[in-house]
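Can't attach files on this board, so I'm pasting raw text. These are the components:
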Amino acid sequence: MGIKSIETKYMEERDELFRKLKNVSRRDFVKLAAISAGAAAAKGLLPPQSFQLVNVAHADEAKPRFSFAYISDTHLYTRQLNDRFVRAILRSVDDVNALSPQPDFVIFGGDLAQLGARAELELGAQILKSVKAPVKMMVGEHDWFLDMGDVWKSLFGPTQYSWDHKGVHFVTLMSVQEKDFWTARKMTPAQRMQTVAGLDNGTQSRFEVGPAGRDWLKNDLAKVDTKTPLVVFSHSPLYKYYHDWNFWTDDAEEVQQILSRFETVTVIHGHTHQLVSNRIGNISFHGMLSTAWPWPYAPTGLPKLTVQMNRADPFSLADGCGDGRFDVGASGAGLVDSIYNLWDRNPVTVKASYLVSNGTKDVPPATKLVSY
Amino acid sequence: MRIHARLSIVAIAVLAGGSVALADDKAAPKHNLPTSPNGDLVVGLCDGTTSTTVRGKKPGEQLTPAEAKKISDELMAEWKRKNPATGASWDRETLVAQNTPQPGGNRTDTAAHGAGTPGPAGAQPSTGTAKANMATTTQRAQDGHTYGAFTTRDEQIWRASTQAFVDEGNRIFHDAKAVGGTIAVSCDMCHPNAANTHPETYPKYQVQLGRVAMLRDMINWCIENPARGKPLPDDDPKLKAMEAYIYAQRRGVALEYGKH
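---
Top answer:
Structure tokens for the assembled complex are below.
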């Protein structure tokens, strides 16, 4: 039959489904569609797709206590310079606003801007205003190193803060501090920003929460009971994945040490632009997707619990990108399932039970196309 | 010798083309040579500022090789006087060559082979050379053959030249403007250290293009689509440099053309 494009295959699959449905009475179809839409929503299939009916058999999901959504790593330039990344964040805002039920809040995972410019950050702030649920902001290195956070802070407030929600203690950290590499090199702020913006630019320092940030965290957690489920947001992964791309937090061990006395800890991070999962001690880690572009998996250091997302189709500018949702308590009190809403693909769920069981339970679907 | 040879070429170019040293390069800055009161020939150095007057020779007259060498020596001496700290490091290859120990002879009896500074991609001697070295200890090498009679210094110069080409590719790969993009998207934004470019898998049938593609076709696809620029001609030096950079990141990876 020759070679078919991805689009052709998709349309054929869809036509096949509709052809089969013709054999079902209208009354039965309406009933079936309603059940399947509910099941699909519970599984995070968004927006509803024609072939959600296929998944009816798995409709016995435990209901989460609550959920929150995320948008991350939008890397905005101004609209005049680059409309592509602007359209991508708008798509994720639509996704999040279409969630039913609505998430309790939306965490923004950092790197709102590409080069930390006021116009970029203001554009992002303006777009995020159309998110219906409350938005919690986290800072990334692309937002920071032009003016060391001045504009970001004026728009969004403090970089480290915490709050309690339905029995869970949430903490947002600023994990992308870097030791001064710019003064000795007599860099301008723009040069400093450009250096940090280059993932493979080895001139910069490694990310860290830093002593002041860690002291703040210790102090914040001092008043929290160790039985309280803890969810920590950081832009960089709070572990050491790959040094050369700053998939890395230099003082990760110290931060993990502070978190280790809590019974249930989940760290949710941005920066890596990929499906990435890890478990260290009693801490589960979930990475967030970017709306702008996917990063390749690093050549070494990938946590062994990570089931790679299929490599991105270079011919589809949205593939490998997306947003997502976290379900709290779906598989245990305070535990967090991560639903990766990969655009133009079926979503992938990485359950808390998969990480807690060290990969023996609820294994995510296998990778079909591993990275080269 | 090398320096003199180069300067002679530059000097001749000046003689042939009048005051414009490089007629085919419109971007080259113009070196405005002073005029001689006697109408004698003035020869400029490639630094764009130094010049010397050739007494008794008028523009258009032929110079003997000895006269040309004398002029280039004068110009070089003047340049060195103006740049005492730089020494002879005006040329990367020369610098490498001068810092390379010369145990003498060609590479098959060179103990210090590979002693130079390795580039980012590593510059260890290949196993092939190591075997060749071993062979000389047990067996007399074939001789009387000028091809391959190069020295460690030659190898260092070639390595530096190759690295310079790779570095140029690195620069273009990391510069949205240099690849001709219009939306400030550079190659490294999706491909840090050229990751996920898998040059070893080409040529291969690229389903989305409906034909067999080479690495350069995919580079051009990325320039045209994610970066929204104009595709480069197949023989564009920028395209070649980017290929050099991408291949240089995959040292030791097995070629697997056609792999998906």
